[in-house]
Amino acid sequence: MYVRESIYVDGSWVPSAGTGSIEVVNSSTEEVLGTVPDGVPADVDAAVAAAVSAFPSWSARPVEERSKYLTQIAEGLTRRGDEIADAQRAHFARGLVAHGEHA
Question: Can you tell me whether residue 87 is helix, strand or coil?
């Protein structure tokens, strides 16, 4: 079982402003897979404020530089593809096409 106690805001993992958590459940077995913070409106406000603050410097960067960052994100997601697919399969309790294959 995994327990996430933080949310990702403004480039860092930080505690939620709320105190609750949500169980992540395998819908076919009803097994609790883990917990995540139950975000509250203040968390949304913090994330939006961070995005608004970051936008001027992000949008001023050359397109080539922004493209490199986005490529790095895509590569990271690709490296974790099987892990992400396993998590989705467990959470939604249905088969997914194997990573890299087409339906």
Answer: helix
Domain count, the chain: 1
Q: What share of the chain is helix, strand, coil (3-state, %, to 5)?
A: 50, 20, 30
Residue 44 DSSP label: H
SS3 call for 38: coil
pLDDT digits (tens, 9 = 90+) for 3-32: 999 999 999 999 999 999 999 888 778 889
Residue-number span of the structural domain to which 17 is assigned:
2-92
Length of the chain: 103
Per-position DSSP letters for 32-82, written without gaps between them: EEEEEE---HHHHHHHHHHHHHHHHHHHHS-HHHHHHHHHHHHHHHHHTHH
